[in-house]
Every structure is written in C-alpha cells, then in structure tokens.
Amino acid sequence: MTLENVLSRIDAEMPAATDRLLDILRIQSISTDPAYKAECEKAADWLVADLKSIGIDAEKRATPGHPMVVGHVEGDGPHVLFYGHYDVQPVDPLELWDNDPFAPAIEDTANGPVIRGRGSSDDKGQLMTFVEACRAWKAEHGSLPCKITFFFEGEEESGSPSLVPFMKDNAEELKSDIALICDTGLFQSKTPAIITSLRGLLGEELTIKAANKDLHSGMFGGVAMNPIRVLTKIIAGLHDETGRVTVPDFYDGVPEMPADLAAQWKALNFDHKAFLGDVDLSEPAGEKGFTPLEMIWSRPTCEVNGITGGYTGEGFKTVLPAEASAKISFRLVGDQDPHTIRESFRAYVKSCLPADCTVEYKGHGNSKGSVMATDHPAFEQARSALSDEWPEAAAFAGCGGSIPIAGHFKNILGTDAMLIGFAKDDDQIHSPNEKYDVESFHKGIRSWARILDAMTRG
Predict the structure, then answer these.
(1) What is the pLDDT of residues 10-21, one digit of tens each?
(2) Under 8 Å between Cβ of 45 and 87
(3) Which one of 61, 152, 411, 421 is CB 3.0 to 4.6 Å from 184, fit for a cystine?
(4) 279-335: per-residue pLDDT in tens?
(5) 131 DSSP assignment
C-alpha cells in the first residue's frame, strides 16, 4: 500500500466525509451557555462513537465543565497527539444569519462550494480533517501509521477552565513526541502555513461607579461626576500619538525582531491593502515604525472590545449613569507577563480615578505568547508534505491570535506543538454565516495523510 492509495480513498469518500461533518455540525455545542450543556455532552459522545468506529480506543472524560474526549491507538514510530475542540461560539445575532446556524448545508458561492454553519471552520471542520485522514489510512492499511493520541476539548470557546487541571492530572497519558493542533488557517487564504508563534491574551473588564443611582442630567449635570466621562478618559489615555500602549512597563519582555525572521516574513509579500480592503478599511492603525505583518504577528496590542453605560435603547433619555463598563484585551508577545501587566493596568486606572469614583474589575483569563521549536524534524517534514499538496509552497508564519493550548503542551507536558490549519480569511469564524470551503476540507484531509506519511517515514 502506498500514500497514493490513501489519497485516492480520501477523494472517493469525500461525500461520506462531508456527511459526517454535517452531522456533527448539527449539534449545538455552545460551551459558554449553560443551556447547551446537554448538547456539549452529545458532541463528545458523537466523537467517541466516531473514533471507535475506526478502531480507536476512545472515551469521554468528565471535568467540572464540559467533557474531554481522549482516544489512543498504538503503533510504531513517533507518538503524535492531535488536539481540536468540539465546542463553538454563540450564534448571536441570529437575525444576521441567512439560514439556521445549526442546519448546515453545502452552498455554492462565486468562489466555489462551501459548508455553511456554526463550527464549520472553527473548529469541527478542521478537527475532522485529521480524523478523516486517519479513517482513510486505516481503511487502506488496516492500521494507523504510528502511535496517536486524540485529545478533544469542549471549552476552548469559553476560556478552557478545565483544561490545565485535566492536563496536569493526566500528564503521563498525554505526553507525546509532537502535538498537532488544527485551529489556524492558510496565509492570505492560499498558502499553507505552519504557525511558529502565537500572541498571548489578557482580558480585563472594568466598571467605574459614581452615584448610587442614575441621575437626571438637568438636575445633576455639571455637578455630579459622570462615569462614562471617566471611563472614556481612561481609554483615550491607553495609547500615545504613535500607537504605543502607555500602560507602565507594558513593553517589558517584548523581543526585537530577528533579521532572518523579518526576511522570511517580507518574502511572503503580505498585501495589507487587500487585507484591510476586504473589511472596508485602508490604513494600518498600529504602532508607527512596524510593517503591518509585524503589527499582527510580533507586536503586543491593547484593544477596547466593548463599552456600556447609560441609556442605549431607542429614543433618548437624559441621564447621568451610575456606572460605566468596558472590556479591554491585551495581545502579548515574547516574555510579557500577563499577571504583571494586569497589575500595571489596574494601577494606571486607579491613578485616573477622580473623587467620588470607584472601580471594580473582572478578569477574563490570561496566557503568555508562544514560540514554537522549528528545529523539531516534524516541522520540515510537514512543510514538505504541505507543499506537495497545495499549489503554493508551505511557509512558516506567525499568528496574531491566541491559542493557549500550544503553551500548555510545552509547559505542562514538555511537548512541542505544531499548528497547521486550513481556514480562510473570509470564513467568518465567530460571526454569522460561518463557512468552511469544501476545497479546504478536502485538501486538509489529504494534507494530514501526507504529513503522517512524511513523519513516519522520517
């Protein structure tokens, strides 16, 4: 049996593979909403049954939150762990969806057929690319090419509160030679990318409080402090005129860009005008002195993700609100310490508070940035395998997003992680009308078969 037999089987069985993906996409596994707890259990059960159908010893493992799915198959050669998550983001606002987000279907578009539905790209579709590659390999060879551990999470979209305790409690079982993560995308929607760095994430929610109730703006305006005024002044002071973040000591631990890495990124010919043009923008808004790609992949950020306060309904209400809130996120790189930055941010906020105002905080998780060990032989093996499958040669790339599991693999298990994904920039993950290109699903399955073949051949 050869790799070509496996690839031919993948091609022939694409309709059945697509049907299986549509099946799991129908499960409403929204992890952040307790109303969908039973649906998350259902998704975990579905995955256990599917893994068992191809001879994998799999089971659902309870956690204080949603369950993990763990499966094992023995084999020679390297021990590979594959991670994905079966939970999805909420679907609100529902009225912006063209169809029911949990009634997935194949839809013809100007750019080819797509699989439309919540979780199609993030992350059920990507998770199933690896499972389907293993299914085809098993059908052709009678066994899988190496020792594989399957590790599927149900809380990735809600902060992964059970993940670290579970990994620590099951560290010996989960240790492997390399961890594979399929939760990223193609570079500029066409070049297969192996992610070599991820930004960390710190989330902060602050609420400024003043009077003990909302006040009439005619009776109290001008004499009573307005929390919205205080909050907006705090937010406005978070950046200077060059785009740098002003939180004290924020840039401690931010590394300089290595010359060889800068050259690699320059060679990717990133079209930032097209990237911004796709969302009706035109000018990079980050720190001056850095390229757009460096802004996304290698520089830390501070962004306001939401503001609330006062009356926001239809019409008008002349009120001074008793409180105002904002959600603020920091993307982190290098050795930036999220705990130190949290304390520095809170000290900055405190320094801005006038008399009669207090502040309350709610933290929303934190993780450090990650840099992958590209000297691991699997990286070059995967790059060669991906280049054989896709029209564009595969590239090492950074990622502006945060996938904390990559750091957990290294810090808890001592295992290097390799992130490969097949999403496109316009997949609308986390947004209405999420989709996954049928081509991405198909070539993703073929890609994993090629990668497994390359890794097991050495």
Answers:
(1) 999 999 999 999
(2) no
(3) 421
(4) 899 999 999 999 999 999 999 999 999 999 999 999 999 999 999 999 999 999 999
(5) H
Task: Report yes or no: 11 and 133 within 8 Å, Cβ to Cβ.
Answer: no
- Cα–Cα separations (whole angstroms), residue 194 to 270, 275, 426: 16, 20, 19
265-291 as b/e: b if 16+ CB within 10 A: beeeebebeebeeeeeeeebebbeeeb
- What DSSP state is assigned to residue 190? T
Residue 368's Cβ-count burial label (10 Å; 0-12, 13-18, 19+) is buried
Three-state SS string over 344-359 comes to HHHHHHHHHCCCCCEE
How many beta carbons lie within 10 A of that of residue 261, not counting itself?
16
CA 155 to chain centroid, in Å, comes to: 12
How many angstroms from the chain centroid is the CA of residue 60?
A: 23
Q: For tokens 């999403």, name the residue.
A: 423
- Cα dihedral value 194, 131, 175, 155, nearest 10: 90
DSSP string, 42-89: HHHHHHHHHHHHTT-EEEEE--SSSPEEEEEE--SS-EEEEEEE--B-
